[in-house]
Task: inverse folding
């Protein structure tokens, strides 16, 4: 078993020890891409021995991506079964997902799958792994990821995780830093507090989340280890400590401090040492995010008179302005490939999520009533906070604006989303 797969299993087990949230997220899908790929997903042979239906999870993953037209095969088909390719092609399916689940003597489950091409009448891909029963859903997400990648050429994000802040006024510990699967299932509590928690940020290896806690009546930056449950103090300087963001190699974080009276951007090592000032300007500089190569930071500054997004070397120096449309632009987020800037812009009295092509400067409005954007690790989707039914909730939109999902819960507000990295 590969190292990162072991790490994901450890992460799953560790979060179980932190406590289970009271309610799962509910996902609703709206919109699809222009050219959906028709895929038939069969029930897996003997999948009733698993705690969850593998085929149902795969089907739900592919549907909510908006990329696939999922056809229910209405039968169980093992990966060893003989396939009538012409019949499946006639049904409209370009590809067929088949598989099986077998309970092993040691209690593990052998989950096997094949992805078949009805046009070329052959196999596209296959996977076979033995997993603990509790990891059935994770294995199904991995299979869905394989289907997504083989049919689109882009890595899937179904087996990734998200983190966000849940708020329930009726609880003693009103604020909860929670971690969940990308589809909102398997919600676990990483940290809880009677005081606000904001700005969670995943480490590049997916084992830690940095965040700001007000438990001591002022904003202090901590780092939570999701495997051990332990946390480390990152910054408790005089004044505000805010907006932690990891460097791509995980060695340091960009943070915002007002310890000298004005909010400036600093970097600090992942263990809290080595504080280094990056910006030096009479304006407020905050919300720094590293570029994909770690050489540049994008940040919000009001040095032009109102909040706009700028960029500069991660080690300091001259800054150049990036956003020019609209009087109020905040919350810069850079796509994993470094080509797209997502940000929140206030125009005509509304806060909207925009995506900018950094090469051309062309902007696309993706969603209204939005805040706190976060890219998926494959760069194809953006999660953000919004309002739904009078409560704060989460939503996901594709970078072309065609596919939208909402993630809601009946347990209270959910906000401050951050999308975790690839785990394998």
Result:
């Amino acid at each position: 078993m590969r190292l990162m797969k072991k790490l994901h299993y450890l992460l799953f087990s560790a979060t179980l020890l932190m406590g289970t949230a009271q309610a799962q997220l509910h996902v609703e899908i709206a919109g699809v891409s222009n050219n959906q790929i028709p895929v038939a997903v069969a029930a897996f042979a003997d999948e009733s021995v698993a705690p969850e239906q593998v085929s149902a999870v795969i089907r739900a993953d592919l549907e909510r991506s908006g990329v696939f037209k999922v056809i229910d095969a209405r039968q169980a088909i093992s990966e060893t079964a003989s396939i009538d390719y012409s019949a499946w092609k006639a049904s409209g399916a370009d590809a067929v997902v088949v598989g099986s689940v077998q309970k092993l003597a040691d209690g593990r489950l052998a989950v096997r799958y094949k992805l078949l091409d009805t046009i070329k009448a052959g196999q596209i891909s296959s996977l076979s792994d033995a997993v603990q029963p509790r990891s059935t859903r994770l294995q199904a997400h991995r299979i869905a990821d394989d289907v997504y990648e083989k049919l689109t050429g882009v890595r899937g994000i179904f087996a990734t995780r998200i983190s966000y802040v849940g708020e329930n006024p009726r609880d003693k510990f009103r604020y909860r830093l929670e971690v969940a699967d990308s589809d909102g299932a398997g919600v676990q509590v990483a940290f809880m507090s009677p005081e606000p928690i904001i700005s969670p940020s995943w480490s590049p290896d997916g084992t830690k989340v940095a965040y700001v806690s007000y438990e001591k009546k002022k904003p202090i930056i901590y780092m939570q280890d999701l495997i051990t449950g332990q946390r480390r103090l990152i910054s408790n300087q005089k004044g505000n400590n805010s907006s932690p963001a990891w460097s791509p190699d995980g060695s340091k974080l960009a943070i915002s401090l007002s310890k000298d009276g004005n909010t400036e951007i600093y970097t600090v090592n992942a263990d809290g040492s080595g504080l280094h000032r990056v910006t030096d300007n009479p304006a407020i500089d905050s919300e720094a995010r590293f570029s994909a190569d770690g050489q540049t930071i994008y940040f919000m500054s009001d040095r032009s008179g109102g909040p706009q997004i700028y960029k500069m070397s991660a080690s300091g120096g001259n800054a150049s302005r990036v956003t020019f449309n609209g009087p109020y632009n905040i919350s810069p987020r850079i796509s994993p490939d470094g080509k797209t800037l997502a940000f929140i812009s206030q125009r005509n009295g509304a806060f909207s999520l925009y995506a900018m092509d950094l090469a051309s400067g062309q902007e696309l409005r993706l969603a209204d009533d939005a805040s706190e954007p976060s890219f998926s690790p494959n760069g194809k989707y953006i999660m953000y906070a919004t309002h739904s039914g009078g409560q704060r909730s989460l939503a996901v939109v594709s970078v072309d604006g065609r596919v939208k999902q909402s993630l809601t819960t009946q347990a209270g507000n959910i906000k401050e989303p951050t999308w975790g990295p690839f785990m394998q």
